[in-house]
TrEMBL record:
Keywords for the protein's UniProt record, in alphabetical order: Cell cycle, Cell division, Cell membrane, Cell shape, Cell wall biogenesis/degradation, Glycosyltransferase, Membrane, Peptidoglycan synthesis, Transferase
Pfam families linked to this entry: Glyco_tran_28_C (PF04101), Glyco_transf_28 (PF03033)
Protein name: UDP-N-acetylglucosamine--N-acetylmuramyl-(pentapeptide) pyrophosphoryl-undecaprenol N-acetylglucosamine transferase
BP-aspect Gene Ontology terms: carbohydrate metabolic process; cell division; cell wall organization; peptidoglycan biosynthetic process; regulation of cell shape
Functional summary from the UniProt entry: Cell wall formation. Catalyzes the transfer of a GlcNAc subunit on undecaprenyl-pyrophosphoryl-MurNAc-pentapeptide (lipid intermediate I) to form undecaprenyl-pyrophosphoryl-MurNAc-(pentapeptide)GlcNAc (lipid intermediate II).
Sequence ranges assigned to domain Glycosyltransferase family 28 N-terminal in this UniProt record: 4-141
Catalyses which reaction(s): di-trans,octa-cis-undecaprenyl diphospho-N-acetyl-alpha-D-muramoyl-L-alanyl-D-glutamyl-meso-2,6-diaminopimeloyl-D-alanyl-D-alanine + UDP-N-acetyl-alpha-D-glucosamine = di-trans,octa-cis-undecaprenyl diphospho-[N-acetyl-alpha-D-glucosaminyl-(1->4)]-N-acetyl-alpha-D-muramoyl-L-alanyl-D-glutamyl-meso-2,6-diaminopimeloyl-D-alanyl-D-alanine + UDP + H(+)
Record-stated family: Belongs to the glycosyltransferase 28 family. MurG subfamily.
InterPro entries, A to Z: GlcNAc_MurG, Glyco_trans_28_C, GlycoTrans_28_N
SUPFAM superfamilies given in the database record: UDP-Glycosyltransferase/glycogen phosphorylase
Top-rank EC class of the record's enzyme: transferase
UniProt GO MF annotations: UDP-N-acetyl-D-glucosamine:N-acetylmuramoyl-L-alanyl-D-glutamyl-meso-2,6-diaminopimelyl-D-alanyl-D-alanine-diphosphoundecaprenol 4-beta-N-acetylglucosaminlytransferase activity; undecaprenyldiphospho-muramoylpentapeptide beta-N-acetylglucosaminyltransferase activity
Amino acid sequence: MKKILFTGGGSAGHVTVNLALIPKFMDAGWSMDYIGSINGIERQLITAIPNVKYHSISTGKLRRYVDLKNVKDPFHVVKGVVQAYQLIKKLKPAVVFSKGGFVSVPVVIGAWLNKVPVIVHESDLTPGLANRITSRFSTVICTTFPETAAAFKNNNGHHVGPVIREEMKQGKAERGREFVGFSKMTKPTILVMGGSLGARKINEVLRESLNELTKQFRIIHLCGKGNLDSSISNPDYKQFEYIDQGLPDILAYCDFVISRAGSNSIFEFLFLKKPMLLIPLTKQQSRGDQLLNAASFEREGYCKVLHEELLDSKSLITSVRELAEEKEVYIKNMNGFKHHDALGLLYNLIIETAK
Ligand SMILES: CC(=O)N[C@H]1[C@@H](OP(=O)(O)OP(=O)(O)OC[C@H]2O[C@@H](n3ccc(=O)[nH]c3=O)[C@H](O)[C@@H]2O)O[C@H](CO)[C@@H](O)[C@@H]1O
């Protein structure tokens, strides 16, 4: 039986493509292992899947800012490399697929030391730090955006396009309504998603604006772990920390989306033709990848952008109303995007690369 090893984590954006690939390898009868961190979101998402064996290793965050943990973390990364090397030596996978995030660095180096071919995936317009490191130890780097492929120095970039999980295509609006517990009613519904980990500023401003927004809309708020606010009682507002299996149904049910600009999420919204208001992570909080993702979508006319520096209750309410008024224009523009089978392309590439 052929064996594949997946890695990637830290946030769901570094797990989603793995979640899309796993059913394909399962159907083809491959044996599957996953190396992730001890406490990252990948543990919760992957251990819920039967037939995938989860192994955890020590990890260290790769920070761009000064922090006392920067002294300790290189030791965690080195320990992770040793653990990954030993695990891969024992597991003997035919190929490693890495979706990035800091946990992937020791795994990819461990695979390279074991001479196992590695495929890396980058979903943002500019490569993340982890992928810039792991690209040097990889056979192919697959990208969501065409221009990203050229950024990798070893000429091993390969554009595959946005990988959409199969279940995203099978959402049912009525199931979504029942899942969240809204009564049958015609008020348009907005899904608010501050990235897979939630976004404090978006949560605060949204909650300040709730009374005004719910005069016109219903709101489903994915607020991130530990961010529920039990003091709010509004029949047109439902909040969840994170939704795993039910998300396709909820997206099918929603009319609009307010979101961070993580690449996997925005391509899912594009695929489902949901007019979106994007509030990208700022340059102070990140390398600026979401600003570029959002700018690229704005140029194509797929979204409206509200920069966090300008985000307050007034600008949020105005932007949402404008989005709703211009709904048809956004949908028309999104209809022009040509989707192809990126998941199939990626799957075939992995099969061809496997030893
Ligand atoms: C803070 C941070 O580091 N953000 C990065 C992270 O974002 P983040 O982890 O938010 O990643 P994305 O927006 O790309 O993807 C999130 C994925 O989680 C899913 N989802 C989300 C919420 C939920 O309740 N249920 C659920 O299933 C979405 O459908 C999507 O498939 O990875 C992205 C892709 O590399 C980057 O663009 C972001 O800059």
